[in-house]
Task: structure prediction
Amino acid sequence: MDMDTLLVEPIGLEQVEGALGRFFEESKVRAAKIGPGYHGLWETLERCTAGGKRFRPRLVMSAYQMLGGRDLENAAEVGAAFELLHTALIVHDDVIDRDFIRRGIPNVSGRYRSIAEAAGMSAEGARHVGFSAGVIAGDLALSNAYRLLERVEASAAVRRRLGEILDEAVFASAAGEFLDIETSLNPAMPPLEDIVHMARLKTSVYSFEGPLQAGAVLADAQEEVVVRLGEFGRDAGIAYQIADDLLGVFGNETRTGKTNWGDLREGKRTALMSYVSARPEWDSISSLVGSPGMSAAEADQVRRILVDSGARDYSADLAADYASRARTHLESDVVPAALRAALEPVVSAVVDRVR
Amino acid sequence: MDMDTLLVEPIGLEQVEGALGRFFEESKVRAAKIGPGYHGLWETLERCTAGGKRFRPRLVMSAYQMLGGRDLENAAEVGAAFELLHTALIVHDDVIDRDFIRRGIPNVSGRYRSIAEAAGMSAEGARHVGFSAGVIAGDLALSNAYRLLERVEASAAVRRRLGEILDEAVFASAAGEFLDIETSLNPAMPPLEDIVHMARLKTSVYSFEGPLQAGAVLADAQEEVVVRLGEFGRDAGIAYQIADDLLGVFGNETRTGKTNWGDLREGKRTALMSYVSARPEWDSISSLVGSPGMSAAEADQVRRILVDSGARDYSADLAADYASRARTHLESDVVPAALRAALEPVVSAVVDRVR
Result:
C-alpha cells in the first residue's frame, strides 16, 4: 500500500517542492564543480526523491497550519527535511534488502550496477558497486535532512525540539531496521508484541509521529496536542504496517506495484506469520515460508492456510483495532476539528484497503 | 600510516573523551530500552570509536586554544562531532571496501557476520548481514555528528559557519568515495591531477581543513587565519595521502598494520601508479596491477619497477612538496607562532616516514 493512497489535504506542498528543488539545485551546482560523475549521483538522488507523494511533508504541513501556523515557507523546510530522511531510509533499505528496483525503475544501486556492468565488471563486482553508490547517496540524503532542518527559523527552544524529533526518527528507524535483521536470524516467528514494536520503530516514528509533532511544535501548539499527535501517529503507523503486510501477501499486484509472494519467499516477520506460527496449521507451511524457491502453487497453499487458520482475519481486525485506537487519541478538545477531519482519512484508508 | 604518528599536542583531549563518553552513555541507555540487540549495536559502534587516537579532535582543540579559545568543554563537542564523523566514514568505507577487520579486530560488519554465521546463515547471507549492520551503524554515527554539533554553544553566525564546515566535510568525503569507485571502473590509471583531487576530497577536507577551521571559527579567529588553516589543511592532507599510499606499497607491514600488497592487488589509484602508467615500464606490470591473485613474487616485481621507473622517488618528492607548501601557508603574522609550532610536526612526520 503506497502512502499516497492515504489522503491528507495538500496544503503548502508547493512550498515543500520549492524547498526540495532549491536544495537539489544548489547541491547539483556544487557537485558539478567536483565532476560530472558526482553531479550524476546527485541527479540520481533527486530522481529518487521526486517519485514520492510527499506523505510526510503533507502531515507536517497539515499539523502546522491547522494548529495556527502561517509561515508556509518555513514549515516547508521541515517537510523537506522529513522527505529527505525518507529518501535516505529507502535508499539504504534497498541496499539492506538487496533490491535494485524501486517503484518500477532502477534505484541508486540499480543504476550504478548497470554502469559497472557496462564498464565490463563481473556480476558480483557490479552489484557491489551498486550497493556502494547506494551507501554514499543515502549518506548524503541523511546528512542533508539535518541541514534542511538547520534552515528553519524558530526560537532556540523550538529548534532544539525539532532536532530531538528528527533524532528520535533516525534513532527509531535504525533500531527497526536492525531488529528486522536480528529477528531474521532466528528461524522462529517472533511474538506479536515484537511485530508491533518493530512496526512502531520502522514506520510510526519517522512517517507519522515525527512529521505530525514537528508541524505542531513549529506552530507553537500546546504540549497536550503534541502528545496526542504522537499517540495518534504511533497507532496509525502500526495499523498501516499491519495492513501493508497483509497487502504484501493478499494484495492485487497491479494495485500494490509489488509481487505478492516476495514477502512469503523472504519469510518476512508479520502479524500474519506470528499468528499462524502458534497454530497447528503451521507445521504444513513452515518449511515453505522463507524458501527462496517457493513456486506460485506453494504461495497459494500458504495463502489458503493463512485464510483457513484465521490469520488473515486476525491481522485485518488488528489493523482496524489500531486504526480505531489512533482515532480516539484525536478525540480531545485540544485537537482542532479541522485537523481531526484531515487525519481521519489516513486511518480510514488503512482499514478500507484490507477489508 | 596511522594518523596517531602525526603529533599534535593533546590539549583538552580529556574533554573530548568526556563528550564522547556522555554521548555513548546516553545512547546506550536509550538503546537498551528498545532491546539488548540494539544496545549491542551501540556498544559495537562505541568500540569502533574508541580505537582511534583522536587526530581530528586534536586539530580542533589545538586551533581553538592557540587562537584564544578558553571554553574547552564547548570546543570538545566540536572535536567529538568530527570524531563521530570519522567513525561514520570508516564504518561505511569498510562496507564499500568489503573489509571485515579494522585495526586487527573485527569491525561492525565483521562482528555481525560472525553472529549471522553462528546462527547458521550461509557465508554470502552472513556477509550481507554484516554489511547491513555496517550501513545502519554508520548512519547512526553520521547523524549524531550533526547532533553533537547542535550542542555547541555559540552565536547564530558561528553555529551557521560550523554547520557549513561539517557539511563541506561530508559533501567532499562522499565525493571522494564516489570518485574512487568511479575511477576504479576505468582500467586506465587516472592522471596525477585526478589523484590529487581525490586525495583532497577524501582526506584533506574532513581530516585536516574541517577540524582546523572549526576550531578557529569557534575561537572567533579573524577570517585570514581561517583561510590560511584551510590552505594548510588542504596541502597537508594531500601530502599525507600520497605518503600513505607509498607506505601501503613499500611500508613495513608490522609498523603500518596492513599488508603491503593489498593496494597492488586492488589496483588502487595512487600517484605511484599514475606516474608509472605513463612510462614504457608500465607494459611489463599493467596486467599484474589489480589482479586479485597476485603472488608475493609478482608484488616484488611490481615494487622493483616502481623503484626503477622513478615512481617511488617521484611520489616521495611530491609528498614532500605538498608538505612544504602546507608549511608556507602558516608563514603569516596572523598565525600565532604556537599554532605554527603545533602544526609543524604534522607535516614533518609525513615527509620523514617516506624518506
Q: What stands out?
A: Chain A touches chain B through 50 residues (CB under 8 Å). The longest helix of chain A spans residues 156-184. Chain A has two domains: 1-153, 158-355.
